[in-house]
Amino acid sequence: MRSRENYATDAVFECLAESARRAVIEVLCDRTTATLDELADAVAEQGDTRGGPADRLVPELHHRHLPKLADAGLVEYDAEGGVVEATERTRAADVVAQSVEQCSLLSPDVDATGGEPVHLD
């Protein structure tokens, strides 16, 4: 049987698996508070434009990413006021994300798609 802590840990890693959510965490480590529009602009500036330009990121952040981050306790999100705030867990999540990124940089021969390792001979 899985403990409550394991589910919480899984929720954090699930949040960090998405690049837009990692960008949100990174922005909030610098600012601690941002409006939804400011956050969309900052995420778009970081180059995470999978959702399109900043104005197209707003609904994606509002409906998908911010609720998931809030459920995991990584941000506080006032959906009515459109304000996002860092929590005490935001910085820790950023450290985890940066650590994982460093691991991927140290292992360039691993296929990022989850397939077999790619050997660069």
TrEMBL record:
Pfam family of this protein, just one?
DUF7344
Q: Which residue range or ranges hold the DUF7344 domain? A: 13-85
Q: Which domain of life is it from?
A: Archaea
Record InterPro entries: DUF7344 (IPR055768), WH-like_DNA-bd_sf (IPR036388), WH_DNA-bd_sf (IPR036390)
Protein name as it appears in the record: DUF7344 domain-containing protein
